[in-house]
Design brief:
alpha+beta; Arc Repressor Mutant, subunit A; 34% helix; Beta Polymerase, domain 2; 5-stranded mixed beta sheet
Length: 193
C-alpha cells in the first residue's frame, strides 16, 4: 500500500484518537460516527503498515471490547519539496526528533530557529527535565517553562539563567526561564508543549 493512502481523512482521524488513548473498534466507530466494520477495515490497514498495534483484553461480557488498538510507535511521514531536494519518507522518531518536530510545527518561524538552538543547548540537562513549554505570544524574548521533579528544582533554578542566543544572520534573542514542579501552577501565559 502506498504510504499516502495511510493518511486519508478517516485513517488520520483514527490515528488522532489513538494518540489520546488506546481504544476499541466499537468506541472508535461511535466517536467517528461510522460503522464498526469500516473502522475495523481501517485499523487492519493501519496495523499492516505498522502504525497501530492491537492488544487482546480479557472481556467476556457482551458489548465489551475484546481488542484495544493503540499507536505502535512514534512516526512521522515527511514530505520535502525544495529546489534541490524532493523526497518523502516514513521515519521512526526518537524523543529528540519529536521535540524538533514540535518546534517546526510552531506558527512563528522566528521562534523556530532559536528554540531549536536552545533545545540542543539544553541537551545535557534533559534527564532532569520532565516537560518543556514555550510561551507562544512573544518571539523575543522567549519565555521557557521547565517542569522538573522537586529534588531537581533548586538546581534547575540556579542552572537556567537568562541568556542570549544569536543566529548566523546576526539576530539575537533573549531567553528567560521559569522552573516549576508538576504540583506548582503554571505562570500566566499561552504555553505550547
Amino acid at each position: 500500500m502506498e504510504q499516502e493512502n495511510l493518511f486519508t481523512a478517516s485513517k488520520w482521524d483514527i490515528l488522532k484518537l489513538l494518540a489520546e488513548q488506546a481504544r476499541s473498534p466499537i468506541e472508535l466507530a461511535r466517536i467517528a460516527n461510522t460503522s464498526v466494520a469500516n473502522i475495523s477495515q481501517q485499523l487492519r490497514l493501519l496495523e499492516m503498515a505498522g502504525l497501530v498495534s492491537s492488544k487482546r483484553v480479557p472481556n467476556r461480557d457482551k458489548g465489551q471490547p475484546r481488542v484495544l488498538y493503540s499507536l505502535a510507535g512514534n512516526y512521522s511521514y515527511l514530505i520535502a519539496t525544495t529546489s534541490d531536494f524532493v523526497d518523502k519518507k516514513l521515519l521512526q522518531l526518537s524523543m529528540y526528533n519529536k521535540v524538533i518536530l514540535r518546534i517546526w510545527f510552531l506558527d512563528n518561524p522566528k521562534q523556530r530557529y532559536f528554540l531549536e538552538k536552545l533545545f540542543w543547548n539544553l541537551e545535557e540537562h534533559l534527564p532532569t527535565i520532565e516537560e518543556l513549554h514555550v510561551e507562544t505570544t512573544t518571539e523575543n524574548p522567549l519565555r521557557i517553562l521547565i517542569v522538573t521533579n522537586p529534588q531537581a528544582l533548586h538546581k534547575a533554578q540556579t542552572t537556567f539563567q537568562p541568556l542570549t542566543l544569536a543566529s548566523p544572520a546576526g539576530e539575537t534573542c533573549q531567553v528567560f526561564f521559569d522552573c516549576i514542579t508538576r504540583e506548582d501552577p503554571k505562570p500566566e501565559g499561552t504555553w505550547y508543549t
